[in-house]
Write a structure and sequence with these properties.
Helix content: over 70%
Number of helices: 9
CATH class of the domain at 61-196: Mainly Alpha
Largest sheet: none
Shape: elongated
CATH topology of the domain at 61-196: Tetracycline Repressor, domain 2
CATH architecture of the domain at 61-196: Orthogonal Bundle
Radius of gyration: 19 Å
């Protein structure tokens, strides 16, 4: 890695640390430059605009999520084991292996839900991609006959995402010590229904 690439990587990592605390919009170029012992002009030599830096930070978060959650899950056998791995790895990400407590992407949704532009567009695409990963895993579980043939994979993914969202609120906002157990119980009911019952 060249010096320029190393500096760029350091900028993105430090900016991500800021964004976890104060959001992408709250990233301060001045604070960032000071913390890295760079001038503002030196920082802008790597990123021509604040938006370009924000997009790089978002891409870094997406890549970390893929490495920590998606790739290990896809290494599991197709079907129910993979579905369970996706659920558990995402919970672990939200609980303590992501960027502090909670899901970084769910926090960004609140920040950019009514703020059009390239960052919102990329965030939306990343979450659609993630939902598609869960949907495909559920479809494979049907194909492997781990789930009942009447299961709708898109509905299964929708409800699984709902459990993660409920966990986010209970764990991060409300500080509910039973949040993880409640999320796991809800998921087990969803799995049980997928295995044994026709979906209406």
């Amino acid at each position: 890695m060249s010096k320029g690439e190393s500096t760029r990587e350091a900028i993105v990592h430090e900016a991500l640390n800021q964004a976890v605390q104060i959001g992408l919009e709250g990233i301060s170029i001045g604070v960032l430059a000071t913390s890295l012992d760079l001038s503002k002009s030196g920082l802008f030599a790597h990123f021509k605009s604040k938006e370009a830096l924000q997009l790089a930070v978002l891409e870094e978060a997406i890549e970390r999520f893929a490495r920590k959650v998606i790739l290990p899950s896809l290494a599991e056998p197709r079907g129910e084991p993979r579905v369970r791995a996706l659920f558990c790895n995402k919970l672990a990400w939200m609980e303590h292996t992501g960027f502090g407590a909670g899901c970084f992407f769910l926090s960004l949704e609140q920040e950019y839900d009514d703020r059009p532009g390239p960052i919102r567009d990329r965030l939306i695409q990343s979450q659609r991609d993630w939902s598609e990963v869960v949907t495909r895993a559920a479809a494979l579980a049907v194909r492997e006959r781990h789930f009942h043939a009447s299961v709708d994979p898109e509905q299964f993914a929708f409800e699984t995402v709902g459990i993660w969202r409920a966990f986010q609120q209970a764990h991060k906002l409300l500080g509910d010590p039973k949040a993880k157990a409640r999320a796991e119980r809800a998921f087990e009911r969803l799995i049980d229904e997928a295995q044994h019952k026709k979906r209406s």
